[in-house]
Amino acid sequence: MAELNTGDGGGGKGGKVRSKKQNSKVDLTAMVDLAFLLITFFMLTTTLSKPQSMDLSLPDKDDDPTKNKDIKVDENRTMTVMLGENNKMIYYMGLLATPKVGPKDITYGKDGIRRELLTQKKAVIQYTGDKKKGIIVIIKPTKKSNYRNLVDILDEMAITGVSTYAIVPEFTPEETTLLEKK
Predict the structure, then answer these.
(1) Using an 8 Å Cβ cutoff, are 94 and 101 in contact?
(2) Residue 20 has pLDDT above 80, yes or no
(3) What pTM value is reported for the model?
(4) 181 pLDDT band (50/70/90 cuts)?
(5) What SS3 class is residue 139?
(6) Contact 76, 100 (CB under 8 A)
(7) Three-state SS string across 1-21, please?
(8) Are 141 and 149 in contact (CB under 8 A)?
(9) For residue 1, is pLDDT > 60?
């Protein structure tokens, strides 16, 4: 409890009446104890935020070339996104020799790659007539692209609901010249 001490009650005889300076002292011990109890309580009862991670399916580490089987997919369902230096991104649909759409420069975000992913996703569903056979996105980061660009494009895959995508580090010579030109 706080208490206020105000010196002597006075009691001298006669003479001039002078106003006495009051000596005030507030005891804050209880308030400090309460503050530390509250800090301790909140430290022990709060949960720390857990780091969020994205689930990626990685291939097995088998180096057996006999198990390496190429999977044929319809080129009308594939979209290739190449990540270059200085936040540059180029995409095309189908094969680069005879592209269905593109190759085009595009930006990150909702007005760029997200809109195009949603548009092409709808076009692939109309083409196949089956929602299970959706778009396949091939992400090709260059050595000069930064990590943030790769994370951004993976976030766009999650936002747009693209379930089939792959990160491929190999480039064809045509793709390399395309990136160098633009």
Answers:
(1) yes
(2) no
(3) 0.61
(4) confident
(5) strand
(6) yes
(7) CCCECCCCCCCCCCCCCCCCC
(8) yes
(9) no
CA atoms within 13 A on the CB side of 91: 20
Q: Which two tokens stand for residue 151?
A: 């994370």
Q: Which one, of 58, 5, 12, 46, lies nearest residue 27 by Cα?
A: 5
Give residue 100's pLDDT band: very low, low, confident or very high (50, 70, 90): confident
Question: Whose CA is closest to 120, among 149, 92, 139?
Answer: 92
pLDDT of 69 reads 65
Alpha carbon of 179 to those of 4, 83, 100: distances in Å?
A: 79, 9, 18
Residues 6+ apart with CB under 8 A from 60: none
DSSP 113: H
User: Which residues, 6+ apart, have CB-to-CB distance to 133 below 8 Å?
Assistant: 77, 124
Can you tell me the distance from the alpha carbon of 89 to that of 87, in angstroms, rounded to the nearest whole number?
6
Residue corresponding to tokens 């709060």? 46
